[in-house]
Specification:
This protein is an alpha+beta fold. The chain is built from two helices and five strands. It has one domain (15-77). Helix 1 (35-46) packs antiparallel against helix 2. The radius of gyration is 16 Å and the shape is elongated. The protein starts with 14 loop residues before the first strand and ends with a strand.
């Protein structure tokens, strides 16, 4: 992990000083599923009888909010939604 990544970011866009380009920006956020969750959902979909379980896991799974700089486009922090 890059030492310039910011800590204590929440789930919403935030006003920060980018550690890469040193511009004062409001972060752009995007939500991604954890890779382990994606794999589990795919495996459950392969087994037809467990497809409803896969949908529940997908909806209630851990997700990562990525904060990106709107100036240099680098990821400057993450937040885990549970």
């Amino acid at each position: 992990m890059d030492k310039r990544m910011l800590k204590n970011l929440g789930p919403e866009p935030e006003l920060v000083l980018c550690p890469y380009c040193e511009q004062k920006i409001i972060t752009k956020t995007s939500i991604k599923l954890l890779n382990s969750t994606k794999l589990f959902v795919c495996l459950m979909c392969l087994v037809i009888t467990l497809a409803p379980l896969a949908l529940v896991v997908y909806k209630e799974s851990d997700r990562i909010v990525k904060h990106k700089c709107t100036s240099c486009k680098k990821t400057i922090g993450t937040y885990l939604l549970t």
